[in-house]
Specification:
By secondary structure, the chain is of the alpha/beta class. The chain has 17 helices and twelve strands.
C-alpha cells in the first residue's frame, strides 16, 4: 500500500481483526421484534443439541451454493475470478477440517478439531434458473459500513439472491478498518449473508497481510452458521459465553499471532484457544473449529437454515473440490473426468509461465471460473472444472531454468532487469532480440536507441546493457507493466525457444496429461500459446484439434514464430479453427494481431481488458466473445472419427 492517506472509499486494515457481526446483531435486536423471537427459538434448538437432547438429522455433506456480489469503485477492488475461487477453496478446507495448518493445533485440543460437513461452491443457476457464474459485479462509489447499504442495488450495492437457496457474499471496500461482518440466522432475508472487505478476501490479488489467507470469510461464515466470538463478547471480562462447551472461557479477543499458551480467566491447561476461527487473531494464527462448534452448525442446518440440506439435486452441482493435501504437494497435471462432454470431445487448458509452486486444481478452478463468467454473459451453459484437462508444467519449467549453468559476476551485473536474462548464450541472444522487437513494435524511435548507445559506455560494455534497459523501460511505460515482469516473461519465452533442454522438459511434462483421442478444444495463454504450437505436432494421432484458442500470446513477434517447431508462421496441420484474443495493453501480446504474420490466420478479438489485468487469463476468458468461441465448440456434436 502507498504512503498516501487513504480516502473513505479505500480499504484500511486495523491493528487487529475487526468484525461487525455483533454490531449488526445488537442493532437488529433493537429494531426488529421478529428477529428477537427467531433468535430465541434458534438458541433453544442449539441448547438442546449442545446438551444431547437432540441430535442432527442431516447426513453426509451439505453443499451450499454461493453467489459473490463484487461491489467496487476502483479496478483494484474488482477482485478477479481466481481470487474468488481461492476464497471458496479456503472455506472448503477450513469447514471440512482439511486445512494443512490444522496440524498446528496444540496436543490437548487436537481431538477437538472438527469436520463440520459443510462445503461451498459457486452457484451455477441464478434465481430464474438461467446459467450463471455465481458472480455479480457492480460499479459503485463510496465505501460501505455495517449499515447494509452494500446489500441493495438502490443504495449502490447489489440486491441479495434468495437467502434460503444461496449464501450471499458481498465483497466491497469497507470503511474504518472493518474486515467484514455477517448476519446471524433469523434476520431479514433481504440482508442475509456475509460482507468481506476486498483486501481481506481470498489468498492473492487484493488480499493484504496479515489478513491474506481467506480466514476473514471463514470467520464471517461461522457467524452466518450461528457461531459467536469465542470470548463471548463481554468486553474483556470473563462472564461472557459463546455457548460452546469445548471452547475455554477467555477474557477477550486475541489479536496478532499469540504465543502458546496464553492464560486468562483461570482457564488453565492450554489457556485461550486463540487459534480458533472465531477469535480475532491474524489469518496465519487461526486454524480450528471444534466439535462443539460443529454441533451448533448442525442445529442451524437442521433448523433455521434447513433449506440448504433439502435443495433439489439438480441445483447442487459438483462442488469446488476440497483440497486435502498441503497446497503444492504432488503437483502434476490433472485429467478430466471420463464422461466430460460425452467422452468424444475434450477441453484442455494450457497455462503460461510463472505458475511454479501453484496447485493445479486451484489453477483449473480459476480458469473455469473465468470461462464460466464469460459463458454466462454469452447465454451459454457453464462448465464443471472437472470437465477440463489441465497439464501442469510450472515446476518443471522453473527447475529447468534453475538447472542452467552458473554465470560470472560480470554477466549478472550486466543484465537488464537484474537476474532476468537466461543463462545459455542462444537464449540470451533471443532474449535481447525479443526486447528489441517489443520496443520497436511499441513505437520506440531510433533516436532513443542512439542516445542510450552514446551515453552508457564503460569497461563492461554497458552500452548494450543500457540500451536493453531503455527498451524495457519504453515497453513498460506504454503497457503499464513493470519492466522486470516483462523481462522475466521474455526470459522464459527465450529459454523455451532457444534451449532444447528446457523445451523438451516442458513438452514431455505436458504430454503426460493429454487425452488419447477425440476432438480437442485447446485453450492456451501466454507462454502456453507457444507450447501449444509445439504440442499440436506431438499429440496422439487419434486427437484432432477442433478449436485452438490463444490469449495474451507472443506469437505475433517475428523472434517467436520464426523459431517454432512448426517451421515458422504456419498453423500446424489438423487444426480446424483458431481464435486469438489479445489486448493492446498486454505487453506479451505486443506482436498482435496475428493476421499479418500467420498463414491461415485466426479469427481475432481485441479484448478491452482493464490495464491492471491486461494479461490475466481470467480476464480474457470472461469476455463473452472469447467464451462463446469455446462454448459453441464444446456444445457441438463431435465429428465421427
Amino acid at each position: 500500500m502507498s504512503g498516501a492517506a487513504p480516502s473513505d472509499t479505500q480499504n484500511t486494515h486495523p491493528p487487529g481483526r475487526r468484525c461487525g457481526a455483533m454490531q449488526v446483531h445488537r442493532r437488529l435486536l433493537t429494531e426488529d421484534a421478529a428477529y428477537s423471537v427467531a433468535r430465541e427459538a434458534i438458541e433453544n434448538r442449539a441448547f438442546f443439541y449442545e446438551y444431547g437432547r437432540e441430535s442432527t438429522a442431516r447426513t453426509g455433506v451439505t453443499h451450499i451454493p454461493v453467489v459473490v456480489h463484487v461491489v467496487h469503485e476502483t479496478a483494484a477492488q474488482n477482485v478477479g475470478d481466481a481470487q474468488i475461487v481461492s476464497q471458496l477453496e479456503v472455506l472448503n478446507r477450513d469447514f471440512r477440517g482439511t486445512n494443512p495448518d490444522v496440524g498446528n493445533v496444540p496436543a490437548q485440543w487436537s481431538e477437538l478439531a472438527a469436520d463440520t460437513r459443510v462445503a461451498f461452491h459457486l452457484a451455477t443457476r441464478d434465481p430464474a434458473g438461467a446459467p450463471t457464474s455465481g458472480i455479480t459485479r457492480t460499479r459503485s462509489t463510496g465505501g460501505f459500513d455495517t449499515d447494509d447499504r452494500v446489500k441493495f442495488t438502490a443504495s449502490g450495492g447489489h440486491d441479495a439472491w434468495p437467502s434460503d437457496r444461496y449464501l450471499n457474499m458481498w465483497v466491497c471496500p469497507l470503511r474504518g478498518g472493518l474486515l467484514g461482518y455477517a448476519q446471524f440466522p433469523g434476520g431479514p432475508p433481504a440482508t442475509d449473508g456475509v460482507v468481506i472487505t476486498s483486501t481481506a478476501f481470498g489468498v492473492h490479488g487484493t488480499a493484504t497481510a496479515p489478513f491474506d489467507l481467506g480466514r476473514t470469510a471463514t470467520h464471517e461464515v461461522g457467524h452466518w452458521l450461528n457461531l459467536f466470538h469465542i470470548w463471548g463478547d463481554d468486553g474483556t471480562g470473563c462472564s461472557g459465553s459463546d455457548f460452546v462447551g469445548d471452547t475455554p472461557n477467555q477474557a477477550g479477543p486475541n489479536t496478532g499471532t499469540p504465543a502458546f499458551p496464553h492464560m486468562t480467566c483461570d482457564n488453565g491447561g492450554g489457556g485461550d484457544m486463540f487459534m480458533n476461527f472465531m477469535d480475532y487473531t491474524d489469518d496465519a494464527a487461526m486454524f480450528l473449529f471444534t466439535k462443539g462448534q460443529a454441533t451448533r452448525i448442525d442445529a442451524t442446518l437442521d433448523g433455521v437454515r434447513a433449506s440448504f440440506t433439502t435443495l433439489a439435486p439438480e441445483t447442487v452441482p459438483s462442488p469446488t473440490p476440497v483440497i486435502t493435501e498441503a497446497v503444492g504437494a504432488g503437483r502434476t497435471g490433472i485429467a478430466a473426468r471420463e464422461d466430460a462432454f460425452g467422452g468424444g470431445r475434450h477441453l484442455l487448458f494450457l497455462h503460461g509461465r510463472s505458475q511454479q509452486g501453484r496447485d493445479p486444481r486451484s489453477l483449473r478452478q480459476a480458469w473455469a471460473a473465468g470461462l464460466n463468467h464469460g459463458l454466462t454473459r454469452a447465454g451459454l451453459t457453464p462448465v464443471d472444472p472437472a470437465q477440463a484437462w489441465f497439464p501442469y508444467y510450472g515446476d518443471t519449467l522453473a527447475q529447468a531454468l534453475e538447472a542452467a549453468p552458473a554465470r560470472s559476476f560480470a554477466e549478472v551485473a550486466a543484465e537488464p532487469a537484474p537476474s532476468a536474462a537466461p543463462a545459455s548464450a542462444p537464449a540470451r541472444a533471443l532474449y535481447e532480440e525479443l526486447i528489441a522487437e517489443a520496443a520497436a513494435r511499441s513505437g520506440m524511435p531510433p533516436e532513443e536507441e542512439t542516445a542510450a548507445q552514446e551515453g552508457l559506455r564503460d569497461s563492461l560494455g554497458s552500452a548494450l546493457v543500457g540500451l536493453l534497459q531503455r527498451r524495457l523501460s519504453w515497453v513498460a511505460a506504454r503497457t503499464g507493466v513493470d519492466d522486470l515482469v516483462i523481462a522475466r516473461i521474455f526470459r522464459d519465452v527465450a529459454a523455451y525457444l532457444a534451449d532444447r533442454r528446457v523445451r523438451d522438459a516442458v513438452l514431455d511434462e505436458v504430454l503426460r496429461t493429454v487425452p488419447p483421442g477425440g476432438e480437442l478444444v485447446l485453450v492456451s495463454h501466454s507462454l502456453g500459446t507457444v507450447v501449444a504450437m509445439d504440442l499440436i505436432t506431438r499429440l496422439p494421432p487419434a486427437v484432432r484439434v477442433n478449436l485452438l484458442v490463444t490469449a495474451g500470446s507472443p506469437l505475433g513477434m517475428d523472434s517467436v514464430h520464426g523459431r517454432l517447431l512448426t517451421g515458422g508462421p504456419r498453423l500446424p496441420e489438423g487444426v480446424e479453427r483458431w481464435f486469438n484474443a489479445w489486448c493492446p495493453h498486454d505487453a506479451v501480446a505486443i506482436g498482435c494481431p496475428l493476421a499479418a504474420h500467420w498463414t491461415g490466420h485466426p479469427a481475432e478479438f481485441v479484448a478491452p481488458n482493464s490495464s491492471d489485468r491486461a494479461h490475466d487469463i481470467e480476464e480474457y476468458l470472461a469476455h463473452p466473445d472469447v467464451a462463446r468461441a469455446v462454448g459453441t465448440r464444446l456444445a457441438a456434436h463431435p465429428t465421427p472419427a
